[in-house]
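Why run this: before we spend reagent on co-expression, it is cheaper to look at a predicted model of the complex and decide which construct boundaries make sense. The entries below are exactly what would go into the expression plan.
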Amino acid sequence: MINRSLLLFVAGAAVMLLAGWVAFPRALYRQVAQPLDFDHKAHTVTAEMECLSCHEYRYDGTFAGIPKIDNCALCHSEPLGETENERKLVDEYITPGKEIPWLVYSRQPINTRFSHSVHTERAKVECERCHGDHGKSETLRPYEYNLVSGYSRDIWGPSISRLRRQPHQGMKMDDCMGCHQERGAVAGCLGCHR
Amino acid sequence: MMANTPNTATAAPVQENRKIRRFGMVINLDNCTGCGSCMMTCAVENNCAPAKEKITDRTGITLMRVFPVNDRQPMPVRQAGFVPMPCMQCEDPPCELVCPQQAVELDPLSGIVDQMPQRCFGCRYCMAACPYHARYFNWYDPEWPKGMEQTLNPAVAPRMRGVVEKCDFCHGRLHLAEDQAAIDGNDDYTYTPACVEACPTQAIVFGDLNDEDSEVSQLAKDPNSFRFLAKLGTEPKVYYYSEHEWRRNLAERDMNGNASRNEGKEA
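The model came back. Tokens follow.
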């Protein structure tokens, strides 16, 4: 009888653990495809462009984020290559002058104030420290958002357990504060919140 | 996963290479006409939702508030005035001391008393502790008439129902000034809060009290400058200025309007 109880207990625990660590994280996030498959590598490696060529600062030091369609049109007013994605870019967005509705992987909640210029210009943090090798990727992975909070999956990071987390994975407040404490860079709450 | 999580509530020492500022204000009561421009601009700048119907002085949100005052003389000789009151940004803030959530802290770099709405759980202990009634509670969900969300200031996050908020010297503007300084490669910046910019009589002077040469620190040392309830020892960084003795005496007047012991002594 004891063996049977034990078996039931282990089986029950296994089911619950699977539900908690496998099924729930899968159910928690929903995937959405990006409107266009952007090839970062073609721009940064083949065309040898810098991150800042497109993701630029405005004159007042605020970060422009994802470039507007006018920025793309500077080079791609006519297709430069043969790819289907570029044809789509020119036909569907550049020619009608329509913005591409990109889904931003690293968008923070509205109460977060993140200044790119303070990090990259003053503290000389590399883009790769937080964005990993995104600038060398060939395709855009699907955007995943949390069904409860609506936040991008990149905020928590790809692994729910956060074990074996790479430095660029995860953009939670703890991840920010970990780096801030290592560097001795401390601001008050409203240094990074608004 | 929590093992290497730093305790974010503990204030760590400030980086050595950062300039330490103490932002403060001097409000010239003789120039204030009570027009209310500062209150209006403040609400717009800081995304305060329009007041609901039947809202009162106690339930509304006025991070900057103009109080009418007078010298309590009989009518023909009575003198009146106005006192604009933002958060006094005390150097030793009682609200920080009492907050059970550590949602309030004195910013080590700017000297501004920070209020974190996301951490606040709405006990309103800080409102009881604040001697200046400078804190306001969100009794209702913030709601804007349709289309008016488009006018919200992107540099300031709206607060939710159930939390306390207060003036933070237009922190969104401070952030923008920091961005500009970072791109210019210096740490030498100042900024102008919305109320200072809006005041038609330029009654409010804002700046760094640590900077000996700034207009604000010169004015703060003027014999005609005073602080409200300075006797409490909270070291507020909002100073007032008046050349009229009765206005300076308002500073120590008690809740019933009785003159304090020091009243009548000319400085």
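Helices of chain B lie at 37-45, 94-98, 125-129, 171-184, 194-198, 215-220, 245-249. Chain B has one domain: 23-252. Bring this page to Monday's planning discussion.
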